[in-house]
Amino acid sequence: MAASACRSTSAPRAYDVPEGVVTWAASADRMHDATADRGYRLVVHTSVAGHDMRIRLSNAFGNRPVTFDSVYAGLQKRGAELVRGSNRRLTFDGSPSVTVPAGEVVLSDPLPGSLPAAANLVISIHSPDATGPATGHWMALQTSYATQGDHTAEEGATHWTQAIGSWFYLDAVSVRAAARTGAVVTLGDSITDGWQSTSDLNRRWPDHLARRLRQADTHVKGVANEGLAGNKVLTDGPGESALNRLERDVLSQPGVRTVFLFQGVNDMKAYPGVTAEDLIDGYREIVERAHAAGKCVVGATVLPFKGWSEWNPGTAAVRQEVNAFIRNSGEFDAVTDFDRVLRSPHDPERILPAFDSGDHLHPNDKGMRAMADAVDLESLDCADPPGTAVTP
């Protein structure tokens, strides 16, 4: 692949960025075909506290409009059961229903009241007419629930009997937070998505990072996890490439101060089709576009993966060259050296066994924590772009 071929071929679409700070997000992708009269009770974990919560519904990968005629937000008690009195209807421009055109996203009206940090927020949605490809995030590592019919207003679990492992249509939640509060978006692949971490316990490395930020004296409190399993920097599949989804998944999220870029191993595994120069050009484009949007960018080195079936000396050479660029180019606002922290001292092309999930590519729970602990929290507070200050 020629180095110039990695750059995006069309102007990125601009999205409206609302006031507030993102407290949860998930990258969108095309799912299986939707089913009419289907309800979803989606469990998500907040990072930053605030009030006047808003959600974003996405039909980014649909090929026809989809209507949501009932949308509620509550707090999880256990399973599909909600805390009594917490479930409240959301509206869209004052209406209880909204139709999202194909390829579009919509924001709800602010919901009065406070939303705590580290809460299991439950968004219940129902569509009477959804057909064609659904939009969602398939690897949630969080149990949510589905049902036939509209049971969104119910706080009990009686009708929510089907456990599911994906999020549908919901791709972001934001709040109005304390003045100057900002967020970091972690842009990555299956490692950032949390694969091989324990489900339902929020042990992805961005979750551990959010816990550290809650205790830290920093303005950055929100964490939006935009990891997508199998995702590449340069080319589509699975999902749109990092270059092609940057606007929707990252730069359009409210209150974002910093983009944390940790991606590239899936491109490297395509060796010899992708060179270090190709990847470096892709990184440079992400940095350029993030800077143009007033964000700073922290770059993270790519982890070793010797023992994974696609590793070979050629991929190892590409990884070493790319990591040297990340460490030494000075083109990032800061660098986190995940490679140095997780590699084995006996074979630097392997993950340290104590951090290896067993597949030699994805860290285990302990490795995920080590990654979060390696992040210099001050580096996430390195910019104060216009629009990140939010008044209560």
Q: In sequence order, what are the helices and strands, one letter per element?
A: EEEEEEEEEEEEEEEEEEHHEHEHHEHEHH
User: What's the helical proportion of residues?
Assistant: 10-25%
Radius of gyration: 20 Å
Instruction: Kindly estimate the percentage of residues that lie in beta strands according to DSSP.
Output: 25-35%
**What is the 3D form?**
globular
Number of helices: 8
Task: Name the poorly predicted regions.
Answer: 1-9, 385-392
Instruction: Report how far the terminal alpha carbons are from each other.
Output: 49 Å
Largest sheet, in brief, is: 7 strands, antiparallel
Number of beta-strand segments: 22
Mean pLDDT: 94
* Computed structural class: alpha+beta
Structure overview:
This protein is α+β, with helices and mostly antiparallel strands and 392 residues long. Helix content is 20%, strand content 29%. It has helices at 190-193, 205-215, 242-251, 265-268, 276-292, 313-328, 338-342, 365-374; strands spanning 21-25, 29-33, 38-45, 50-58, 66-68, 70-78, 81-82, 88-89, 98-100, 105-107, 111-115, 120-127, 133-137, 144-148, 162-164, 167-168, 170-176, 182-188, 220-227, 256-262, 296-300, 334-336. Strands 3, 6, 7, 8, 12, 14 and 15 form a seven-stranded antiparallel sheet that branches. Strands 1, 4, 10, 11 and 17 form a five-stranded antiparallel sheet that branches. The chain has a five-stranded parallel sheet with strand order 19-18-20-21-22, sandwiched between helices. Strand 6 and strand 7 form a beta hairpin. It is globular and about 55 Å long.
